[in-house]
Design a protein that fits this description.
Metallo-beta-lactamase, Chain A, six-stranded mixed sheet, 22% strand, globular
């Protein structure tokens, strides 16, 4: 099965949203949607999501799933906004409960914030599968960047989220709470065990030095041979040393504070306070 894949690139957050559809048929899924957010004003906007919705409607597609590869730290999910307009079920990895427990404490969410993943319609574990029309999707648990990271394998295509980037940019950071460079190495090996011709669709692109254009599609074979962090048979020990040293130099993502609070709620904002206003917290020296 060779699914049709249409990519939407959000330059503000360097995020890829994918519409994955049957080669014959109308069923589709949306992977890693984006809700636009201006941190300075606290205002949301739906331009990015509206472009995806317009494509689905123009192509007369039947949206069955709105999938998240993980709880993103660099953009807000538009999953509930899309679901309200197009339907579909929202899914994420079962280990979302670990992420909710960790960041429920960071943001002092109290007992009203459920930490059981119930904000999502479906939680997936390693070896689970789902259907997009007649297309089978196999779920791989690929933690390391976060505990809940998943890779969705749809025929000859694998949607890896932030686990791998384009070969000239490398791999995901592992310094967020619950991250692990050793675990990420093992997860990447699972992805690289797929057939060499498997198409890999990455969650972000930042144009590596020397590359003029954004890119988001590569292959397992190219990753194995060329990935600057993990290709050409790099050892686990060398990868851990490199990854930990690199992570120590990285700043926090610009939207990590609002993103975590919203995305651990399946894209919903926190409950409004007694004045009817929704607030996002900033834990001072908390991350």
């Amino acid at each position: 099965m060779k699914p049709l894949v249409h990519a939407f690139f959000d330059e503000a957050t360097n995020t890829l949203t994918y519409v994955v559809r049957e080669p014959q048929g109308s069923a589709c899924a949306i992977i890693d949607s984006v809700l636009d957010f201006d941190y300075a004003s606290g205002r949301t906007d739906t331009r990015s999501a509206d472009a995806v919705i317009a494509f689905v409607q123009a192509e007369q597609l039947d949206l069955q799933w709105i999938l998240e590869t993980h709880v993103h730290a660099d953009h807000l999910s538009a999953a509930p906004y899309i679901q309200e307009r197009l339907g579909g079920k929202i899914g994420i990895g079962q280990q979302i409960t670990v992420v909710q427990d960790t960041f429920g404490k960071v943001f002092n969410e109290g007992t009203r914030f459920q930490r059981d993943g119930s904000q999502f319609d479906q939680l997936f574990s390693q070896g689970d599968s789902l259907m997009i029309g007649q297309m089978r999707v196999d779920v791989m648990h690929t933690p390391g960047h976060t505990p809940a990271c998943l890779t969705y394998v749809v025929g000859d295509a694998a949607f890896v989220g932030d686990t791998l980037f384009m070969p000239d940019f490398g791999t995901a950071r592992c310094d967020f709470p619950g991250g692990s460079s050793a675990t990420l190495f093992d997860s990447v090996q699972k992805i690289l065990a797929l057939p060499d011709a498997t198409r890999i669709f990455v969650g972000h692109d930042y144009k590596a030095p020397g590359r003029d254009e954004f890119a988001w599609e590569t292959t397992v074979g190219a990753q194995k041979a060329l990935n600057i962090h993990i290709g050409a048979g790099k050892s686990k020990a060398d990868f851990i040393t490199m990854r930990n040293a690199r992570d120590a130099t990285l700043a926090m993502p610009r939207l990590i504070i609002p993103s975590l609070q919203v995305n651990m709620r399946a894209g919903q904002m926190p409950e409004a306070e007694d004045n009817g206003q929704v607030y996002l917290k900033v834990p001072v020296n908390g991350l």
